[in-house]
Design a protein that fits this description.
The chain has a seven-stranded antiparallel beta sheet with strand order 15-21-20-19-18-17-16, with no helix packed on it. Strands 5-6-1-7-8 form a five-stranded mixed beta sheet. It contains 16 helices and 21 strands. 29% of the residues are buried. The termini are far apart. The chain has helices at 15-21, 43-46, 56-62, 73-90, 106-113, 116-129, 143-150, 164-168, 179-187, 193-197, 201-219, 249-255, 257-269, 301-321, 358-373, 389-392; strands at 6-11, 30-34, 37-41, 67-70, 95-98, 101-105, 136-141, 156-158, 238-246, 272-283, 288-294, 333-345, 379-383, 393-397, 423-430, 433-434, 455-456, 459-472, 481-490, 495-501, 504-511. By secondary structure, the chain is of the alpha+beta class. Helix 7 links the parallel strand 7 and strand 8. It is elongated, with a radius of gyration of 33 Å. Helix content is 32%, strand content 27%.
Length: 512
């Protein structure tokens, strides 16, 4: 039998929980369930008696606050792919054993770092900095022994060459993970790998067949399985150069169509779709203008061409606003590079048997409108934190990731409680709020009205409430903003939100 190769195995404990919860341990008591059976559980759940293989009701009987989530193997694989790519940057030839478990030949990386222990410590440090402090590394003769070493009590366990049999001897036979054979061995009184390895090889083969002989070799530390590197990631980046440089957005958009088609063919060959792309534009001065673009579902060829054109239009608008510098004047684009940043399995984006219905038609219609009106022609609204209505409304172009500049969950003293006006004026529009004598209604420094409001926007006032003071950036002599708010219902049953600054009134919003 071929001598086992020195193998390094990296184990990420409770990886399915890490993929489901999106963060490193410690995790709250959580269990992943498939077919009403616990597949994996967190360390905090195990402390209360929850174990893999239990029925769901039994697990919840141990701890009533147990959070139960469905197990998704595809999610585990997708979440582990960036980890594999990170490992491969420092240890080429990584092999995926299963999500949360990877192997690499120890010879090359140990020579580079001056030893097996030093190489393991280096990888542990790199992965800890990347947000995976729970990783454990085992190095031994063959993947089987290295995996069991990685599950040891310390972050790094090195089994010296030729000592795999001694390391495995005290371990229970259940680590072989063959219920049929290990169950029979236990009934025969063979409880450890050392006991199993001490049996005669010929007799084991006669009694248990080739599968039993294979397990006997593993128990004896004779694991000759090779570490097969995973296929390298396909090269999806495509670029095109222009000579002479092209200055018009439509010219460049037309010229990149062939390059865009090449990107789509590369994605199709890899059976993936692109959900995030980076477009690099290089001008004739050598400056690089990069921007990432997101998509609500996945990019097609027309979407990529639109993003190139929109990025060029934005670049042209910025250049028009910048001071004229003849030495660095924008003359045109000499290179366009399209870099798929995030990809997903194409199977997740295939239409159903009868199509995807309303969502597909809605996305298609919105994308067509955005193509005609430009990138910011179609926007989606999100709620942000702030005291003024205009500050709480964040408009994001369709397809982009909505990021609130201010956390809406934080306290905002002076902000308006629910319900909020359905119509927000941005910027606020001037409006007349009059006293009974026909003069402008005023608010003094103590927040008192000079009179009851009589008319607003030419209509009689039916009801009103307030005023409520609002003062932002009190410490800033020039940047502070202050005023007093009123809610007013006019004669046409329109409800207004208005505020007064100095002797002027502004309509901030209107209820509907």
């Amino acid at each position: 039998m071929t001598a086992p190769l020195r193998t390094m195995v990296l184990w990420f404990p409770d990886w399915p929980l890490r993929a489901a919860l999106g963060g490193p341990p410690p995790h709250p008591p959580t269990a992943l369930v498939h077919a009403n059976t616990v597949i994996a559980c967190t360390a905090s759940a195990r402390e209360h008696g929850v174990r893999a293989g239990q029925r769901r009701r039994v697990a919840q009987g141990h701890i009533s606050s147990l959070r139960v989530l469905p197990h998704d193997v595809a999610r585990d694989e997708r979440a582990f792919l960036p980890v594999l790519q990170l490992i491969e940057k420092h240890a080429p030839g990584v092999a995926l054993l299963r999500p949360g478990l990877a192997a690499v030949r120890a010879r090359g990386i140990s020579r580079y770092h001056g030893g097996e222990a030093e190489a393991a410590d280096t990888l542990i440090g790199i992965l800890a900095e990347a947000g995976f402090p729970e990783v454990r590394v085992g190095i031994a003769d063959g993947p089987f022994t290295a995996e069991l070493a990685a599950r040891g009590p310390t972050p790094r366990t090195v089994v010296p060459p030729g000592h795999a049999k001694e390391f495995l001897a005290p371990l229970p036979v259940r680590v072989l993970k063959d219920e049929q054979i290990t169950g029979l061995l236990i009934r025969l009184g063979v409880r450890t790998l050392g006991d199993f390895a001490g049996l005669d090889e010929v007799e084991v083969r006669d009694r248990f067949g080739e599968r039993g002989a294979r397990l006997h070799a593993l128990a004896a530390g004779a694991d000759s399985r090779p570490v097969v590197p995973r296929p390298p990631d396909p090269e999806l980046v495509r670029s095109v150069e222009f000579e002479p440089a092209l200055a018009g957005a439509d010219q460049v958009a037309f010229a990149v169509r062939q390059t865009v088609d090449a990107v789509m063919l590369a994605l199709a060959d890899a059976s993936v779709v692109c959900t995030e792309v980076r477009i690099d534009l290089v001008d004739d001065n050598g400056a690089v203008f990069s921007r990432p673009w997101l998509h609500p579902t996945c990019f097609d060829a027309a979407d990529l061409v639109d993003r190139v054109r929109w990025q060029l239009e934005a670049l042209g608008a910025e250049s028009a606003k910048a001071p004229i510098d003849e030495a660095r004047a924008f003359g045109g684009i000499v290179l366009v590079r399209i870099v798929p940043v995030a990809v997903d399995d194409a199977a997740h984006h295939q239409p159903g048997l009868f199509g995807s219905g309303t969502d597909e038609r809605l996305h298609h219609a919105i994308s067509r409108v955005q193509t005609m009106l430009g990138h910011e022609g179609v926007v989606t609204a999100a709620l942000a934190g702030g005291r003024w209505l205009a500050d709480r409304q964040v408009l994001t172009p369709w397809g982009e990731r909505s990021t609130a500049p201010r956390d809406p969950a934080r306290p905002w003293p002076g902000s308006l409680p629910d319900p909020l006006p359905a119509e927000v004026f941005r910027p606020p529009r001037p409006i007349g709020v009059l006293a009974p004598d026909g003069g402008t209604l005023l608010v003094d420094d103590r927040g008192a009205l000079s009179a009851a409001p009589s008319r607003i926007d030419g209509d009689e006032v039916q009801a009103w409430a307030g005023p409520w003071p609002i003062h932002e950036r009190r410490w800033d002599a020039n940047g502070g903003k202050r005023g007093h708010r009123l809610q007013i219902v006019d004669g046409h049953d329109r409800a207004w939100l208005v505020f007064c600054t100095g002797d002027r009134w502004w309509a901030e919003g209107r209820y509907r």
